[in-house]
Amino acid sequence: MTAASAAVVCLGAALVACGGGAGGGGYTAVGGVPRQTVAAGKPTGSVRMVPLDGPGGGTAPAGTAGGAGERPAALPAPDATGTPTGTAGRPGPHGGPGPSQSPGHAGPATAAPSATGRGTAAPSRPAPGPTPSRTASPAPADLTWGAAERADTDRRWCEKVTVPFHNAGGTPVRSGTVTFGTHIIGALGVDWATVESTAALPVPIGPGARTDHTWTVCVDAWRVPLGMHVETRDVSVRWK
User: Fold this and answer.
1) The pTM is what?
2) CA-to-CA distance for 63 and 66, rounded, in angstroms?
3) Which residue range forms the structural domain that includes residue 183?
């Protein structure tokens, strides 16, 4: 160090000593210092804020559920209906995460609303048409007959008998017999005896047909003496 430098140092020390001695409020003039503008600094890393008092009166550790320095979990972006598309579940009953739901199982399926506001019902099947019935077989023959109409002949032991027939069935009458019951009547109207005789039925008699037939019914001549006559009152039919 040179002598000039030593003198400057000593002079500075003396001035400092003088300024801080008497009043205690003096300042040392060190010359004009140009004013510098300092820009406010921004943090370059993550900021961590620690509260002074935790929920229990103490200081909460950083990174716990009550700490302010904990970063909130990123929320999933909602879809077109407003429902988050992520898999994060709701909080469980003990503060833990709830069960996650996949997008394909968000809940029970509901029917899509129609123009009237109601769900669209599944189309019902058309009612089956009437089953064609089988061709019914024709009804069997049903033959009926009426009361006999009698007429006298030139012989007292014979008379003409006409019987009407009606087939109400669906098939024709193909065979049968007619049985007559002829009564022998005395001169005083006494019914002495009844004689039966049989004749063939006039067949065929078609379905729905009406017909009549006349027979000459006779008994033995010796059964009808002079003054007596015959009356055919009974008619029965057997047919198939």
Assistant:
1) 0.45
2) 8
3) 143-239
